[in-house]
Amino acid sequence: MDAFAANFLNFGSVLRVLPLMGAGLRTSALLIVVIVPAAMLLGLVLAALQQFGGKATRRCIVVYTDFFRSFPPLVLLVFLYSGLPLAGLRFNEFQTVVTGLVLNGGAFFGEIFRAGIEAVPRGQWDAGTALGLRPWQVFRRVVLPQSIHPVVPPLASNVVELAKATSLAAAVSLPDLLTSARQAQDIVYNPTPLVVAGLIYLVTFWPLVRLVSILETRSLSRRI
């Protein structure tokens, strides 16, 4: 037990690398703050274009959505970081993670928003048109507000999954929390920084996971 504590619960060693891990935590937080809203906005735009775009536009969106929902985000990040420079296009580590996860997350958010929009009765569109509103005004003022509430549980779940996916930044050596913890481990010759990083992720995401479960339960009870 003493050996276990000395190796995995040696929190005194973490004090030496707190600035390093603090910087990594700030980077992870910045990634979440940038990626999640951008992916949600992209998803909303994709869902709107599926409603108002022409046949060719809708087909392109379907291809985009299927592609990025099928493409593993880790492979996508590696491709953007290591593959695109061969074609003359180079992203730095932060740009790589933001671009890859926004493209991936936007595809999922787009499908969620699309499902919510299509769940709104067609009569709501007709009612808005009868009031003299233009199609975009009907969408923004009538349909969109009604489409959000039914999809809050899947939206919240996808937000959590996308936020957790920011830990993949370690694959391109972006100094996020996980990368900083691994560097700290090498400095102190002890895995406790990794344990601390894991605890931070756990404390951050556990309440969010419980919130998603509550939202899903309430949504299910309303349907019943």
Notes on the protein architecture:
There is one protein chain. This protein is mainly alpha-helical and 224 residues long. It has one domain (2-223): MetI-like (MetI-like fold, Orthogonal Bundle). The protein is 81% helix and 0% strand. It is built from 11 helices and no strands. The chain has helices at residues 2-8, 11-14, 18-52, 55-70, 73-83, 93-119, 122-130, 135-148, 152-165, 177-188, 192-223. It is elongated, with a radius of gyration of 22 Å.
> What would you report as the Rg, rounded to the nearest angstrom?
22 Å
CATH topology type: MetI-like fold
Name of the top-level CATH class: Mainly Alpha
Overall geometry? elongated
Low-confidence spans: pLDDT under 50, at least 5 residues?
none
The tally of strands reads 0
Total helices: the number is 11
Average pLDDT confidence is 89
Number of domains: 1
- Distance between the terminal alpha carbons, to the nearest Å? 51 Å
Give a quick rundown of the structure.
By secondary structure, the chain is mostly helical. The protein is 81% helix and 0% strand.
Keywords:
mainly alpha, MetI-like fold, 11 helices, elongated
Question: What's the layout of helices and strands?
Answer:
Elements: H1 2-8, H2 11-14, H3 18-52, H4 55-70, H5 73-83, H6 93-119, H7 122-130, H8 135-148, H9 152-165, H10 177-188, H11 192-223
